[in-house]
Amino acid sequence: MPEGVMKAWLESSHLNGGNIVYIEELYESYLDNSASVSAEWQEIFSQLPKVEGSEVEYRHSAIRDEFRTLAKQPNKQVIVSSSSDTKQVKVLQLINAFRFRGHQNANLDPLGLWQRDQVRDLQLSHHDLSENDFDKEYNVGSFASGQETMKLGDLYKALRNTYCGSIGAEYMHITSTSEKRWLQQRLESVQSKATLSVEEKTDILNGLIAADGLEKYLGAKFPGAKRFSLEGGDALIPMLKELITRAGSAGTKEVVMGMAHRGRLNVLVNVMGKNPSKLFDEFAGKHDDVHSSGDVKYHQGYSSDFVTPGGNVHLALAFNPSHLEIVNPVVIGSVRARLDRRNCDRGDLVLPITIHGDSAIAGQGVVQETFNMSQVKAFKVGGTIRVVVNNQVGFTTSKQEDTRSGEYCTEIAKMVQAPILHVNGDDPEAVILATQIALDYRNEFKRDVVIDLVCYRRHGHNEADEPSATQPLMYKIVKKHPTPRQLYADKLATEGSLAKDKIADLTAYYRKLLDEGQCTVKQWRPMTAHSVDWTPYLGHEWNDDYDKAISLEKLEELAVKLSTYPESHTVHSRVKKIYDDRMKMATGEKLLDWGMAENLAYASIVDRGERVRITGQDSGRGTFFHRHAVLHNQKDGSTYLPLQHIREGQGPFAVNDSVLSEVSVLAFEYGYTTAEPAGLTIWEAQFGDFANCAQVVFDQFISSGEQKWGRLCGLTMLLPHGYEGQGPEHSSARLERFLQLCADHNMQVCVPSTPAQVFNMLRRQVVRPMRRPLVVMSPKSLLRHPLAVSSLEEMSTGEFYSVIGEVDELDSKAVERVVFCSGKVYYELLEQRRKNELNNVAIVRIEQLYPFPEQELAAVLEQYQHVKQFVWCQEEPQNQGAWYCSQHNFRAAIPKGTYLTYAGRNASAAPAVGYMSVHVKEQQALVTQALTLD
């Protein structure tokens, strides 16, 4: 280092002395990627004096590595001149440049449309090297060639083969040195070229023949029909089969895949083993099930077994609506359920594969959310293989500046430091190598990895589109471009791996399978029994014919255990008061409040040996400071969960404070429950209106998944709801939206008003064998309302009452008005009626709004057949809440010749007012209106 630079270095006291090793490591990270160090360090390093006449900093580690290598060779004398020393460093910088930027000059686009400038860093001249240096030997540092030194000419060729061929590898953004070294070894040791036997090459060709053959067959047999062809991305088929085969060989027992519509039919037939004759029937409009709505062909899921050298692997392709990327968290939730059931916390036994579109992966926020979940405790699955079918067109948009801001569609993956392997879809052998590396990386490091399959779309968005209208230049090339099958068949014939007549035989054989309607996947096997059995949950309708009661003695025992924690565990004073009160509730000194009843429900479930999983943004404590299932030691921050200490051999209990997301977390939990019917799975919104952000999951999965796809789901959703003057955004869980989605007994919508009700409602969701979603308008102020309390005896009945009649001892014959209501407003009505001594007004609570309890309400109204005035009272504005969606049920329930009126807020664009004084005035008015006789 020149004297002036050294002086400046030494004058910066914190950059030398005992800190020097740490500073050097920081500085080298800065050289690799300036964003890898803090802004403060970036400023310091950027201000360091530069060596006159030099554009690039020398890396100390490279120089150290060279001297360490030389030191191991005591018998070899090497005299290095100043010039050769400089060139040695330049060679190491050249290697680093290819690792960082080689992908930018890789041969990735089959159509040759990508206009990419030559990267200056990859040119010899940029490093003061030239072809005159090709015959000189240089130390290659960590370059995985198996040699310590190489001639520059051989090294340069190896670097271009490795990083600028059909695979463009992005991995230098990873901070883990061991992961980078692992990837370098896998790529550089073979120069990114697969070594394959003739049998393996034949398998690849068979995959391409199948991909191409099915599309052409469907195009000829059903011209003009939508199928969202895979053509152009044909290499996806051999890629998926390689992933499954290799995963099975490594011990994986299940593979769960999710994808949108592009190429889905091809995957169903040529990977999953769906019988093509069934697909042809679907194209012809034939179907067996007339009791459901069904769904279009390219949304359908499928399950099968696939034989591998390591045994059979169970395959599941998730059903998916047209909301493209929303299936990703559903898939990963399903995988987590399967891993939990197998007691596998590393992810070895179940592999998730998500298949994305290039515009969708860059454009849809749920992708970012799902990446963010990948290493979070409650959601991790040991890494996901993420495949991008990059056909360079999003619907009709192909310009990069219209679809994303980054260079690649896969930039989002860098947020979790996932390696990204871009690969040319017309080079299937490179695709297979990238696939092998990706899976092995996932299995080794338990992290996400991305394969960007750069290909094209031979037809329009669907087969009825005319793509040349919007992409004229691209489709001039596409029309002339040979198919991947044709290109690879010619390659194998030219190199002598397969004779042309043999290739023709393989093609004819696949066509014969389609003509005969036979399975086209030789690895397909009929499904055998797997780790979950849905049989006990099938064929059950809405009835109470199940063993629901729980003994009072058992409840008392559970309540004591639930209220006990080690004396050494010092809890917050407010939490201690709550637990002291809970012990009094357990011993009968106090009635149970909401938090105690809810936790007691969980205790009773795990005591049965069933699992409980609760996820939400503040679920451990509870948003409104009521649950406290997790006790935090105030001295050392350790935690204790009483619900994990109910008894030996109990069911597992997990409560997870989730990532700050609604849509991805709810989709994850939906996926979990569709793969795990036993136990109780809950998603809790921090405030009920936050469910707005997850509306697509409610609309396209939870409310309609059973009718469209026959997928049962027992997910419970707790949505805090109630008007306490907290403004438009923290009042309403949008009850009306869920009621609007209700039909065909597809889900339950409940508004429990007592602790006993919530206890029995949650238990019912597990004990009753039927599995359907449960939407709960859960309370806020009722958590501590003095009237919202229950006894252990009320809970021991196991009865959830869909309707609760009048609780005060009113003379039913004197009643002139009956008020129907749900939720918190009941207590305001009750207190006002008692205060005003209105003994001629009865109040009836509807605790389950759907399925509507016709018989239960009829039984309650039997004593009020003489009443003429019936009222529905709600807190929500008239155009919201239950009024519009449920009034036909109320009218049908009341005696003939009577009338029903509405008491509540006027219709409003906003769910609630933002001023407390206005809220109080409105609330008082609707209560008064409901109780006042006409």
Q: Give me the count of strands.
A: 25
Overall shape: it is globular
Q: Please write the CATH class name of the largest domain.
A: Alpha Beta
Provide the CATH architecture of the largest domain.
Answer: 3-Layer(aba) Sandwich
CATH superfamily descriptor of the largest domain: Thiamin diphosphate (ThDP)-binding fold, Pyr/PP domains
Biggest sheet strand order reads 3-9-10-8-7-4-6-5-11
SS summary, helix count:
32
How does the helix and strand content classify structurally?
alpha/beta
Percentage beta strand: 5-15%
Uncertain runs? 8-13, 51-56, 76-81
Task: Give the overall average pLDDT.
Answer: 91
Instruction: Return the domain count.
Output: 3
Biggest beta sheet attributes: 9 strands, mixed
Protein name: 2-oxoglutarate dehydrogenase E1 component
Enzyme class: oxidoreductase
Function: E1 component of the 2-oxoglutarate dehydrogenase (OGDH) complex which catalyzes the decarboxylation of 2-oxoglutarate, the first step in the conversion of 2-oxoglutarate to succinyl-CoA and CO(2).
Keywords: Oxidoreductase, Thiamine pyrophosphate
